[in-house]
Amino acid sequence: MNLRRIFAIAFKETLQVWRDPRSLAIALLMPLMQMALLGYGVSLDIKRVPLCIHDEENSQTSRELVQRFVASHWFAVAHTLGADRAVSDAMDRARCVGAVTIPVDFSRHLAMTGAASVQTIFDATDANSTNIAIGYAQGVIGQTTADFQADWAAARGLPTQKAGKVDLQTRVWFNEGLDSRNFIIPGVVAVILGLVGAQLTSLTISREWERGTMEQLVSTPVTALELMLGKLAPYFLIGLVDAAFCLSVTAFWFHVPFRGSLGTLMFTTALFTLVVLGIGYLVSVRVRSQLGASQIAVTLTLVPISLLSGYTFPIDQMPAPIRAVTLIVHARYYITILRSIFLKGSTLGELAVPILALALYAAIIMWLAASGFRKRLD
Amino acid sequence: MTDVQAAVLAQGLTKKFGNFMAVDHLDLRIAKGEVVGFIGPNGAGKSTTIRMLCGLLRPTEGCAAVAGYDVARQPEAVRAHIGYMSQKFSLYADLTVGENLRFFSGLYRVPRREIEMRVRAAVAMAGLDGRDNALVSTLAGGWKQRLALGCAILHRPPVLFLDEPTSGVEPEARRKFWDLIHHLASEGVTILVSTHYMDEAEYCNRIALINSGKIVAIGSPGEMRQRDLGGTLYELECSALGAALVALRQVPGVIDASIFGDRLHVLLERTAAAADLSALLAGHGITTGPPQPIPPTLEDVFVQLVSKPRARAAA
């Protein structure tokens, strides 16, 4: 291995990228666009669920309950309705995903027995979101009921606290606001780096084949390893710039809390960048047309990274065979690492397992790419 | 393979692409300092042979040594000792003249203190003084070819392979290119150059005529011209060249006839009488001058050698 050859190739490649506006656009504009699209577009939080309330009684007490829904930021109370037909009609037209009916005898029951029932109907087309919305609705009603009961007991001079009540005190750690953005955005960074990085290098060898320059290159004494290292070097820098950009947007624009060390973040990001560029280069070595190489690179990275990396769908909820497949999805390790560094402030030692997995990945990919390149035309 | 005097030595070199025999048990020996021209029709196997000698294609059979290194077993040593110009221009069009030269200087590990000197020499050789910073894509054909040659000799290789370096280049630029080749040869560089221009064959020490993957004749231009064509060659001035050609090919005793500029070259069996030709063509309403016996040109020889196996195959 000769450093001068590596440097000569790296310098040549840098000049070519610099003079090719298309490559530069992919390198620098795509991450910007994707960060905006995915960062804003993807959120698992359910807020301002459109809700219809049918208050049949319209008493002071029932209006109090309605007011609690209106005041909660989880629901947007859209309509107050008449008959049952109107409920199904509103749902069909997607004007609301939930409906609450307060019966005519609501306050009477409450006053007599200390208990009353309220009917809620939810559109469960999107089961996941609906589950969360039902939870919110139960929360609103439960809190209101507790207050009503307290008032009822106080009015009768009874003790408000019943003996033996177990009170669940829940505290969530690391993402105290249960804000899904804090969880998603680091994943978005991994997705973007994974896609852009593989795209960048997927063209680098096939371009030489298509333009005919490869014939001259392979007639020189340059080795496959020198060629790979020289070609990856400039893209490695571009990848790091992209990463720095995406991670800065994560911390400073989307305000995902950053609790780890910058050094750990840089080291792991560099490692992941290497894996990603290596995958693109491996494709490039195998496919001699630019179009084919770029399409294969997208196919190889887009689906696994977006579906199997744990970016949106939790890996531990997947069936065992699919879980096994995720072991070869490089992004899952980096997503784990990013979330841990950002939200938990994890250190290198605590992240040893995913870091080793990425290192092993990088080594295998590089070896395959370097040994896959033959300095022959046949 | 122990011929130390040979710069290029191929024995039984063979390349098959599927069922197609591109190069068929080819033997070739080129001595140090020779300029050998590779001549032959398209698809004869010129490029394939050169690529095998450069280590770019793996021979199906046979072996070859270049500059004393085995092409199959020591390809990197071969590459370090050869310069190669491919048929298709293959420098970087989006880099400048200077950038291309410095890039290849780096790949060939030209000693650092010599880089500037050699780059300047290459620029001067290509006639590109003052155009160091011009993008290669803006250069015309002749300059591109001379620059490619400059890139191929940056590391001062003892053996040069040039695959149709002058195709598509204007005549004056071709002359300049051949001046460069002879200059390099005078410094002891061994050169194998393929071409399909007959006039260029005259510039070579030896010519190898390749057809259907085999060398059908090899020798100096003088030797080639003295080859026995199996008959006597006559030159014939006549009015309707095309019609005359058709008529002559039907005549018994005529081995071959072809158009050379404004005349016909007719190869007659030695027993046939040339004087009959004029009378015969007159019968077709074609007026002719008297047939003149002439020594064959290289082209006559090549046409004859290349058409022979075809004629045999047809018979």
Question: Please, could you describe this protein's structure?
Answer:
The complex is a heterodimer of chains A (378) and B (315). In chain A, helix 7 runs parallel beside helix 11 and helix 7 (180-202) packs antiparallel against helix 12 (290-308). Chain A folds into two domains: 3-43 and 180-372, no CATH class; 49-155, abc type-2 transporter like domain (abc type-2 transporter like fold), CATH 3.40.1710.10. Chain A is elongated, with a radius of gyration of 29 Å. In chain A, 66% of the residues lie in helices and 6% in strands. The model of chain A has no long low-confidence stretch (mean pLDDT 86). Chain A has 378 residues and is mostly helical. Chain A has a four-stranded mixed β-sheet, sandwiched between helices. In chain A, strand 1, helix 3 (60-71) and strand 2 form a beta-alpha-beta unit. By secondary structure, chain B is α/β, with parallel strands linked by helices. Chain B folds into two domains: 6-225, 3-Layer(aba) Sandwich (Rossmann fold), CATH 3.40.50.300; 232-295, Alpha-Beta Plaits (2-Layer Sandwich), CATH 3.30.70. Chain B has eleven helices and 14 strands.
